[in-house]
Structures are given as C-alpha cells and as structure tokens.
Amino acid sequence: MAFDRITCDPGRLNGQPCIRNLRLTVRRVVEAVALYADRGELRRQYPELQNEDIRQALEHAAAMLDDKSLAVAERSPA
After folding, report:
1. Which one of 9, 46, 48, 68 is most buried, counting C-beta atoms within 10 A?
2. Which segments of 1-78 does DSSP mark as H helices, in order?
3. 55, 2 Cβ separation under 8 angstroms
4. Per-domain residue ranges of the chain
5. pTM, whole model, 2 decimals?
6. 6-65 domain in CATH 1.10.10.10?
7. 8-67 pLDDT tens trace
8. Could you count the other beta carbons within 10 Å of the beta carbon of residue 28?
9. What is the rounded distance in angstroms from the CA atom of residue 66 to the CA atom of residue 38?
10. How many other CB atoms sit within 10 Å of the CB of residue 63?
C-alpha cells in the first residue's frame, strides 16, 4: 500500500501521521468522517481536504488495525 498523501515528520505534531504535511492528522480526518455524515459539510469544515486525502486516511487507519484484536467491554444486563 502506498500512502503518498500521508506524511510523518517527527518535528510536526509529535510525528503523528498527517495529510500532505498539513497540521491535520489522519486521526482527525477519521474522526471528522464519523462526525460529518454529509461529505459536503465535511468539505466545508475542512476545505483543504481532497477526496483522495480522505480515502487514504481511512485506508491508513484500517491498515493500522489489521490483525489486531481489540478488547470490547461486556455490558452487564440491566
């Protein structure tokens, strides 16, 4: 997988993966996608984002979860 729009610079945002050297982390983009179901509203809030930025952010996040097990808390019966 080539992530040509994802950059990591130890001197910027503690080396977190960012979109095209912007001060916009992959994590923030994924959070924004979840928050703004309407892509139009997402684009209004983050006009610097391009569709390929969003796609690669989601793909990068998915790749980081690959083959990892996450503990899920069980809910007690009410």
Report:
1. 46
2. 26-35, 39-45, 51-65
3. no
4. 6-65
5. 0.79
6. yes
7. 999 999 999 999 999 999 999 999 999 998 989 999 999 999 999 999 999 999 998 876
8. 17
9. 27
10. 12
